[in-house]
Amino acid sequence: MILTALRILENGKLAKVHQCSALDFNITLRITETLLEHTEAVFLYLPERKPILPRQKTHKELFLDQLPVEFTTKVFKDMAQVLDISSKSAERYIKEFIEKGYLQRSAQGQYRHILKKTR
Asked: At residue 7, does pLDDT exceed 80?
């Protein structure tokens, strides 16, 4: 223990094996008990943590998640219809996703989902 190692400096005896004395053990035990009491006291003053519920995804996020790796205009419009998103909103979402770098337009009416890996 640390106290036993410090005693080497006091008595100057450097042996291969050192045994912890009962005094050093009891001192260390009392220090540990005191630290536990202080920890408990501090813990009781901490504010209570309120659980954070996961938020539900928006229609826009669900729409992005449902898009395949490669798709056409028809596919994203069909997907929007299934998710009850208007055609104009779907077009606006696609434009935003391209601007943010989530999607890439590979050709006229052809798109790639950058965030998804090709299998």
From this structure: no
Q: In 3D, which of 79, 98, 99, 102 has the Cα closest to residue 90?
A: 79
* Cβ–Cβ under 8 Å, residues 9 and 23: no
Length of the chain in residues, anyone? Answer: 119
Q: Output the pTM of the full model.
A: 0.54
Token digits of residue 105 = 């337009």
Give CA–CA dist 69/97, Å, rounded: 13
In the 8-state DSSP scheme, what is residue 102? S
Residue 3 has pLDDT above 80, yes or no: no
Q: Nearest to residue 77, comparing CAs of 94, 56, 62?
A: 94
| DSSP-derived 3-state class of residue 20 | coil
